[in-house]
Design brief:
The chain is globular and about 40 Å long. It has a domain of about 150 residues: Glucose Permease (Domain IIA) (Distorted Sandwich), CATH 2.70.70.10. The protein is about 20% helix and about 25% strand. By secondary structure, the protein is α+β, with helices and mostly antiparallel strands. It comes from Sphingomonas alba. This is M23 family metallopeptidase.
């Protein structure tokens, strides 16, 4: 039936008219096809967020590709557990434990893991400070959230992730460093000291008000 319709159109329009109409159809189809592939390319090459068990490559801010670690677990609040392979049920709430002989509270949680286990970014943000504190957190990373309201603090690392630098944008699950015992941590108990601080406008990387990361990562109420 379509062939008959085309033949009738040729009789009424003439061969030149049919050719123009056909050419127009081809051009429209080509434009739509090109638009689709441009859309597909942009979407498929957009930065991706790692979910549990995935591995992908991202290109944040046109920087060198970063491989997201396998085995990343996303907690109930949307934060990735910052040590690869650790599950929510394995966490312990050490937020209120005493430190410095009772002079201060911990204000963080310790995530126990073998030396060298990969540490990843709990949330998207920008590396604001790489800092070494010999008598404190040792090799540390401060990552400020995209809305600048939160600071994520990673301490006692054995080393930074290759290429990590201040000003770098990180996606959730992007490599930060490796579990260690630098600073004042016990060599017999390598772990990640992980803290979250609520930041007010104008506060610097070492400031802010601590909140307990445990319920955000473990989906459990805080310990009493």
């Amino acid at each position: 039936m379509e062939c008959v319709a085309d033949d009738e159109a040729a009789v009424h329009e003439g061969v030149p008219g049919l050719m123009v109409r056909t050419l127009g159809t081809i051009l429209v189809t080509a434009v739509l096809t090109s638009a689709f592939w441009i859309f597909y390319y942009n979407v498929s090459n957009a930065p991706l967020v790692a979910l549990a068990g995935e591995k992908t490559t991202v290109d944040p801010a046109k920087e060198p590709p970063v491989t997201i670690a396998e085995g990343v677990t996303v907690g109930p609040a949307g934060l990735a557990l910052p040590v690869v392979g650790v599950k929510p049920g394995e966490l312990t709430d050490t937020y209120t434990q005493a430190r410095a002989g009772g002079a201060r509270s911990h204000d963080a949680i310790d995530i126990m893991a073998p030396e060298g286990r990969p540490v990843v970014s709990a949330a998207p943000g920008t590396v604001e400070k790489l800092f070494f504190s010999n008598g404190g957190g040792g090799t540390t990373v401060y990552v400020r959230s995209e809305d600048r309201r939160w600071m994520y603090y990673y301490a006692h690392l054995s080393a930074y992730a290759p290429g990590l630098h201040e000003g770098q944008h990180l996606l959730r699950g992007a490599p930060v460093g490796f579990v260690g015992h630098s600073g004042n941590a016990n060599p017999d108990g390598p772990h990640l000291h992980f803290a979250i601080n609520r930041m007010e406008p104008g506060e610097r990387w070492w400031q802010g008000t601590a909140i307990n990361p445990y319920p955000l990562l473990a989906a459990k109420p805080v310990s009493r």
